[in-house]
Design brief:
The chain is α/β, with parallel strands linked by helices. The protein has six helices and 13 strands.
């Protein structure tokens, strides 16, 4: 006679626990990564892509030197193959995202970039949102002093919280901190002065996170308060695109449009900050 009410209570308890677990997973891992699925804020009209960005691009990521770029461009010119844009991938700077040209790889950058501009080529450079303490393959590998400067001044999220990524170890620039942004824009300005036409914004914002008892959670403390991975991703892509457009009306950013559907079903960048996209790094061979 009593088994019915007991069984009913057990079922109610199990359903409640399942609902609580689903809610916890949603707020801890689904909402912070995806945002509100297919919300109007992220899915607005895409910007008009300038005509130059629809012409042929070359991606030089084998030697990462000026000599190699010049060799490529002369070869295309020899066979009358039109080229508009040259994409310089990492490593082109002395440290990742210090925005100082490595002159061992690209000597006399003022003259070299001017030569490309005179020949009507557009130049897009790789960058991320990371300030590294150590770098994988740049001229300056140990950058503890540079990282510490940014950390001590409060320019990084999470009080300088660091993550390992494919180019080393570092923290995230805090786009919500006006002083951090002033510092960051000051670093970038010499590159804009060379005639920069766009950034390739690589996907490090997806690593924006924290740890709770060594368990990664997609939230982190910023100058404005707590932000989710998704909100920081949107901020990263929008801030870099909008700043470039202020300095150059035909400026573009190149962003990943989408990755694995279960990880980023809405893409890396919000549509209003994605004038040019790519779908991943493909092997450039004839096989």
């Amino acid at each position: 006679m009593k088994s019915g009410p007991i069984l009913y209570k057990i079922i109610i308890w199990l359903v409640s626990m399942a609902a609580a677990l689903i809610a916890m997973l949603y707020f801890l891992y689904i909402l912070p990564f995806w945002g509100i699925p297919f919300n109007a804020q992220r899915h607005t009209n895409v910007p008009i892509t300038p005509a130059w960005a629809l012409e042929c691009w070359l991606w030089e990521d084998d030697a990462n030197t000026a000599d190699r770029v010049d060799e490529l461009l002369s070869g295309y010119e020899k066979y009358d193959i039109p080229v508009r844009t040259i994409l310089l991938d990492s490593p082109w700077s002395t440290r990742y995202n210090d925005f100082i040209v490595d002159e061992n790889r690209y000597p006399n950058p003022q003259e070299w970039f001017k030569k490309l501009e005179d020949k009507k080529y557009r130049v897009v450079l790789w960058m991320t949102c990371m300030v590294n303490s150590n770098n994988k393959d740049t001229a300056i590998k140990n950058a503890e002093d540079w990282f510490s400067l940014a950390k001590q001044n409060g320019y990084l999220v999470g009080y300088g919280y660091q993550v390992n990524w494919w180019k080393g170890t570092g923290g995230f620039i805090d786009y919500s901190n006006p002083q951090a942004i002033n510092w960051w824009r000051g670093l970038q300005q010499p590159i804009f002065d060379l005639g920069l036409d766009g950034w390739k914004l690589d996907g490090t914002a997806t690593f924006f996170s924290n740890k709770f008892f060594d368990v990664p959670v997609p939230y982190q403390k910023t100058f404005e308060g707590w932000k989710t991975t998704r909100s920081y991703m949107d901020l990263y892509y929008r801030e870099e695109y909008e700043h470039g457009r202020k300095l150059n009306p035909e400026f573009i950013t190149l962003a990943r449009s989408i990755d694995r559907p279960y990880a980023h079903p809405e893409g890396f960048a919000p549509l209003d900050a994605a004038p040019v996209t790519w779908v991943g790094d493909q092997k450039h061979s004839w096989k």
